[in-house]
Every structure is written in C-alpha cells, then in structure tokens.
Amino acid sequence: MSTLMRAPRACGSWHWELDDVAPSGLESALTVAARMTEVLNGLGLLSPAMLEYGWFARGSGSVGIISRLILSSPIDDPSVPGRVLGSQPSAFPDAQVKRFEVIGSGTWFDAAGKSRREHQLVELSFRLYRAGMSAKITVHHDVWKWFDFTGRPHPEVYNRNAPRLAEALRELNSVLGVELEPGEPTYYGTPMESGIVTPDPDENGMGLDVTDLM
Predict the structure, then answer these.
(1) Partner of 154 at 20 to 30 A CA spacing, among 25, 84, 180, 199?
(2) How many Cα atoms occupy the beta-carbon half-sphere of 3 within 13 Å?
(3) 8 Å CB contact between 99 and 51
(4) Quick one: pLDDT at residue 124?
(5) Angle at which helices 26-42 and 155-176 pack, to 10 degrees?
(6) In this structure, are residues 14 and 136 in contact, taking their beta carbons and an 8 Å threshold?
(7) Exposed e or buried b for every residue in 121-156, given b needs 16+ CB within 10 A?
C-alpha cells in the first residue's frame, strides 16, 4: 500500500514541444520516449513497465477505448510500434493512437533517508499531431515540495527528492534539445523551470494545507 498522499491534480507539470526536433508518428514518439525514460530511470524516477494509450477516430475524437501494453522489451524496440498498432480495437479499424503514457514506478526517499517505491511517482505522456508531437512530465506527490500537503515544512524529504527532479528536468532539456515550458499552476503547486515553487510561509512558518480537497 502506498505511504504517500496523491493529489487529484498535478503538483507540477512540464512539457516540451518537439515538432522541430523529432519527426511525427508513433515510431518517432516511442524513440523519444525511450530517451526520456532512460534519463528518468537513471535517476530512479521512472522504471517503465507498460504503455497505456487511447484510440481516436478522425473527425469524431476518442472512441472510448484505452489499451495497455506490457513492456517485455525496450520502448524503442522495433517490435513495439507493431504491437501497439496490433491492439487496435476491431470495431474501429480506422482508429489511431494520438496520445500515450509510459507507466511504471519510481523511488523516493523519506525523512530518514530510506528509499521507497511508488507507482506513477513521475508520469511521462505524449501527444501526437500530424506535424509533430509534445511530451509532458507530471508529478502528484508532495515529496518535491518544501511544504507537505498539510502545510508543514519537510526539509529532509524535500532535500532528498527535489534535486533529483531538478536534475531530470535539466538533463531532459539537454537530451531533447528543447527547453521545457512549465505547466499551469494548480491548487497543489506551481511549477517552475527547476521544480515546484516554494510559496512564502505564514507567520507560523507554515504553508497552505491543501488536504481539504483531497
């Protein structure tokens, strides 16, 4: 069972527009996903286990079907695009994959420095367009924030985890050759180029308690 609270919306998200640096198409996107996952996995943030993807019909949008593919080989293995397309729902022979997510687990460190595994600690997703693609990383936990979800400072947790996220974002900028764009702020956090913004504390040194909406 997870020991972490998970926010219903993102604490932070970062995206990269890749139209100018990668060809369009599923095979290209999977190649980029493999490069990004290599960075994230190297920092212990995302060990890929499966792909999850939705099917879309031209002119009508989502057909309401989501497929999952267990990764028995690397994401950029030549067999993977065929396995993805081979799972096309038979009722929608013209449906295409327009977005997918790399799903796995990652490692975070508690206040005592003990490593723990968490499913979907870091989420990596892609959107595919006719002219290119975009990639996005999303986090939903408070281990990247100076204040936990109740508003209490947890510097030991922050200092063991936030620098790893910052390093991942820097490395991904370099690997992709594109600078990230922070996503929109939410009730649970405001992203910046190197992680999540630390808001000013109140007179008691506390942050905002956001558990009222969790």
Answers:
(1) 180
(2) 10
(3) no
(4) 98
(5) 140
(6) yes
(7) bbbbbbbbeeebbbbbbbbbbbbbbbbbbebebbee
Tokens 């490692």 locate to 107
| 8 Å CB contact between 33 and 79 | no
Exposure string of 180-211, with b = 16+ CB inside 10 Å and e = fewer, is bebbebbebbbbeebbbebeeeeeeeebeebe
What single string gives the DSSP state of each residue in the chain? ---S---SS-SEEEEEE-TTTS-SSHHHHHHHHHHHHHHHHHTTS-EEEEEEEEEEETTTEEEEEEEEEE-SS-TT-TTHHHHHHTT--TT-TT-EEEEEEEEEEEEEE-TT--EEEEETSSEEEEEE-SS-EEEEEEE-SGGGSSB-TTS-B-HHHHHHHHHHHHHHHHHHHHHHTS--EE---BTTB-EETTEE--PPP-TTS-----GGG-
Closest to 12 measured CA to CA, from 175, 146, 181, 192: 192
* pTM over the 0.85 mark: yes
d(CA 206, CA 78): 51
> What's the rounded Cα separation, in Å, for the pair 115 and 125?
25
Tokens representing 204 are 């008691």
The torsion angles phi and psi of 155, rounded to 5 degrees, stand at -60, -35
Place of tokens 């910046």: 192
